[in-house]
Write a structure and sequence with these properties.
Blueprint lengths: L1 H5 L1 H13 L1 H4 L8 H34 L8 H7 L15 H4 L2 H8 L3 H6 L5 H37 L6 E16 L1 H7 L15 E15 L3 E8 L7 E12 L3 E9 L4 H4 L12 H6 L4 E10 L5 E9 L16 E13 L7 E13 L17 E2 L10 E2 L6 E15 L2 E14 L5 E13 L7 E2 L4 E2 L8 E5 L5 E5 L1 E15 L2 E18 L2 E15 L8 E13 L1
Antiparallel strand pairs: 1-2, 1-22, 2-3, 3-4, 4-5, 5-6, 6-7, 7-8, 8-9, 9-12, 10-11, 12-13, 13-14, 14-19, 15-16, 17-18, 19-20, 20-21, 21-22
Helix pairs in contact: 4-9
């Protein structure tokens, strides 16, 4: 006892050193059997494969959800069922969230113990648990790999089948208008109803409610390198009108496509813009006068540069408008050559196109039948006319058919400057008409407008076509009851605009009139596919050929449009 007491401080010191030594904190390493170590390696490899495939399938789901969900109407659900997807994997290809689609795989994982827990277990229990875990994972991997293979093969088959037959999609638009001719001078009544043999001779324009457009469209691809489009307007059900009706070849060299059929001639920016996207209800005077209804049968090439800075269109067209009869008959071969070169030297990619500059030049050279006689089937197409910015019965600015006109040429200049919600647009066109045996004529016109979004949106720009695009409100318009009481609202996008129009169709003995107008617009975009438009316009016409002695007049009207597309 005395000996222990004698050395008790020494013994205490040695114990303390032993406790503080690093070895005291080290866990006793379990020596694993080579078979167990092999199982662990297989387990880790299987887990990595499961994780990789899971991530890949999630990305496929997200990409497909953004591109095009599989519609049940096309039998896709059944197709996916036929793939034999394992439980928890089929949700990747349906509306179920990606996380939920793999809900059963985490269940398997929860049944597994961690590697550290395995290492702490008794050595004789390790092989059995690892083998069970590995079997579950390998089975899951096999099922996933099989499902992925079948899905990939099915997708490849769809693409292969689609490439073997034409495709088709259907869409359209409805524009319902109301026009109120508030005040007109007496001369406007004679421009509206100029026929002295008519009962309404000289009567002022009448208010009206009408369908401006009831347009249905079908389009698609013919195998991989051709396309087609058919567009018919039923705004007058008794006389449907052809719009775009053509076939073509795409994926041509230099980013080009060739169209053959009824299509827009490349003259007038506001005509090339779709009526779905235009800021004002009706197009400017000069654009409609020199390219009436825009579409003619012809053949044309469309293209753009690799950097999308430049675009071009050029082609040859008949001059006859075939919207209601679908045919060109006659020996006169009245035709035109048209071309347009455009550029967007500034386009702010960083803001997704909220800022851009568009510049373009367009030209047209036409041969007309100035010496037409009564025996000819065709009409002389040297005629330039337009309504004012409203749907009147007749075109108040009108040269009528110009006798002895053999040729005419038109040049047009375009510009757009867009900076966020602000847009400035202008266009000028000049027309030279050559007449046989009489003085040549010159006509011209221009317009300019300013547009601004009160809610901050902008008018998009398509660099491949050099035209404006669809406005997307930051918030769609809605008014709904809320579960908690009260109403939920969204205000859509609000736009205001002001345009000035000028057109001179009077020269020498041809007195089509000189028109000026100021038009204001208020546009309420409910969604990207629906809007309500209000236009108000005041204008004057003078230097018009006399109608019952009247050569001038002024007018004021309101217009309203409900517009949807689908």
């Amino acid at each position: 006892m005395s000996t222990i007491m004698k050395y008790h401080w020494t013994i205490a010191f040695l114990c303390l050193v032993t406790l503080l030594s690093p070895a005291a904190f080290a866990e006793e390493e379990v020596e694993l059997d080579p078979q167990v170590r092999l199982l662990l390696e297989r387990l880790e490899a299987a887990e990595k494969q499961i994780q990789t495939l899971t991530t890949e399938l999630k990305s496929v789901k997200e990409a497909q959800a953004q591109a095009r969900p599989f519609p049940a109407a096309q039998g896709t659900t059944q197709e996916l069922d036929d793939l034999g997807l394992p439980i928890g994997v089929d949700g990747v290809f349906t509306a179920t969230g990606a996380e939920e689609s793999f809900r059963d795989l985490p269940n398997v994982a929860r049944e597994m113990v961690s590697f550290e827990e395995i290492r702490e277990d008794a050595p004789d229990s390790i092989p059995a648990e690892l083998e069970e875990r590995l079997s579950l994972l390998e089975k899951g991997w096999d099922d996933l790999d099989s499902a992925w293979t079948k899905f990939h093969e099915a997708e490849q088959k769809k693409k292969s089948d689609a490439a073997k037959k034409p495709t088709m999609s259907i869409n359209g638009r409805i524009h319902a208008d109301y026009w109120d001719f508030v005040n007109n001078s007496e001369g406007i009544g004679y421009f509206e109803h100029p026929d002295p043999m008519s009962d309404n001779y000289g009567r002022p324009p009448e208010d009206r409610a009408l369908f401006r457009r009831i347009r249905l469209e079908m389009k698609g691809d013919i195998l991989e390198t051709m396309l087609w489009r058919v567009q018919i307007d039923f705004n007058n059900p008794g006389t449907p009108e052809m719009k775009d009706v053509y076939l073509g070849f795409k994926e041509l060299p230099f980013n080009q496509q060739l169209l053959i059929g009824n299509q827009k001639r490349p003259l007038g920016l506001d005509h090339l813009n779709s009526s779905r996207y235009n800021v004002f209800m009706e197009r400017p005077f000069v654009v409609e006068a020199f390219n009436e209804d825009a579409r003619r049968p012809g053949i044309a090439m469309y293209g753009y540069s690799d950097d999308e800075v430049f675009t071009w269109r050029y082609g040859a067209y008949f001059l006859e408008n075939i919207a209601t009869d679908g045919r060109v008959i006659g020996q006169s071969n009245q035709m035109s050559l048209n071309g347009r070169l455009s550029a967007s030297p500034w386009y702010d990619e960083a803001s997704d196109g909220r800022g851009y500059l568009h510049l373009a030049i367009a030209g047209m050279a036409a041969r007309t039948d100035g010496d037409r006689n009564a025996s000819d089937t065709n009409q002389n197409e040297a005629r330039f006319r337009t309504r004012v910015a409203a749907r009147s019965d007749t075109r108040w600015l009108n040269t009528e058919r110009i006798a002895a006109a053999d040729h005419y040429e038109i040049i047009g200049l375009e510009s757009i400057f867009n900076y966020g919600p602000l847009q400035l647009v202008s266009e000028y066109q000049h027309n030279w008409v050559q007449r046989e045996g009489e003085e040549d004529l010159q006509f011209g016109g221009a317009y300019a407008y300013i547009s601004y979004f009160l809610t901050g949106e902008h008018i998009p720009y398509d660099r491949k076509t050099s035209t404006i695009g669809r406005v997307k409100p930051f918030e769609n318009f809605f008014l709904v009851d809320q579960c908690t009481g009260g109403c939920g609202t969204g205000w859509g996008a609000w736009n205001v605009a002001l345009r000035y129009d000028y057109l001179d169709l009077s020269d020498d003995n041809v007195l089509g009139g000189v028109g000026e107008a100021w038009t204001s617009a208020l546009n309420w975009h409910w969604t990207p596919y629906s809007k309500l438009q209000f236009d108000a316009s005041y204008g004057e016409i003078d230097n018009h050929r006399p109608v019952n002695g009247f050569t001038s007049g002024n007018y004021f009207f309101f217009g309203t449009r409900f517009a949807v597309e689908f």
